[in-house]
Amino acid sequence: MTASSDADVRAKLTALVPALRHFHSALLDVAKGEYEFMNGPVKGPFELYSLVMNHPQFQWLRPLSGLMATLDEVLDAKDTTLTERNLTDVRQALGLLFAETDTRFAEFRGGYTRAKGDARVRETEAKWRELLGGIQA
Predict the structure, then answer these.
(1) How much is the pTM?
(2) C-alpha to C-alpha distance for 28 and 45, rounded to whole angstroms
(3) Average pLDDT over every residue of 38-43
(4) N or C end of the chain: smaller count of CB under 10 Å?
(5) Which of 107, 108, 112, 135 is nearest to 125 (CA)?
(6) Are 90 and 84 contacting, i.e. CB atoms less than 8 angstroms apart?
(7) Maximum separation of any 2 CA atoms in the chain, in Å
(8) In 3D, which of 137, 132, 114, 129 has the Cα closest to residue 29?
(9) With 70 as the cut, is the pLDDT of residue 3 above it?
(10) What is the pLDDT of residues 88-119, one digit of tens each?
(11) What angle do CA 54, 59, 62 make, to 5 degrees?
């Protein structure tokens, strides 16, 4: 196995970002639907943002949101050389979110389990998993 250059690593991680955003958006739509079923319609993007940031019913999404924010920060740091270690870190972080043995993310997995019946969630998950599978670290 040959070492990947900064440009190669950056390109792989950059390709993963929109796929994760689409997955997160699909999960958010499911969470919003659950909320609206119990509480009535969300009255616009500002109310949704407030709910996502503050309401406990959206808490389960935060680990994925945080991982995506960290990935954005890593990619935005132009003075940092990216290495295969960055690829490994992303693979491991995503793996932990879905690992049944890691109790820290049980709430995320509960929300994900409720959401994975949604076709858009399944489609967007398949896309990021396909991209991640192509990232050899």
Answers:
(1) 0.91
(2) 12
(3) 96
(4) N
(5) 112
(6) no
(7) 54
(8) 114
(9) no
(10) 999 999 999 999 988 999 999 999 999 999 99
(11) 100
Q: Which long-range contacts (CB under 8 A, 24 or more apart) does 53-59 make?
A: 57/31, 58/28, 58/31, 59/107
pLDDT tens figures, 53-80 = 999 999 999 999 999 999 999 999 888 8
Q: Which helix (H) or strand (E) holds 46?
A: helix 45-54
With CA atoms as reference, report the closest residue to 53 among 65, 40, 71: 65
User: Token pair of 105, please?
Assistant: 């993310």
Say which amino acid occupies 107.
E
The amino acid that residue 56 corresponds to is: P
In the structure encoding, which two tokens stand for residue 134, read together? 């192509």
* Helices 119-133/6-39 angle, 10° precision: 160
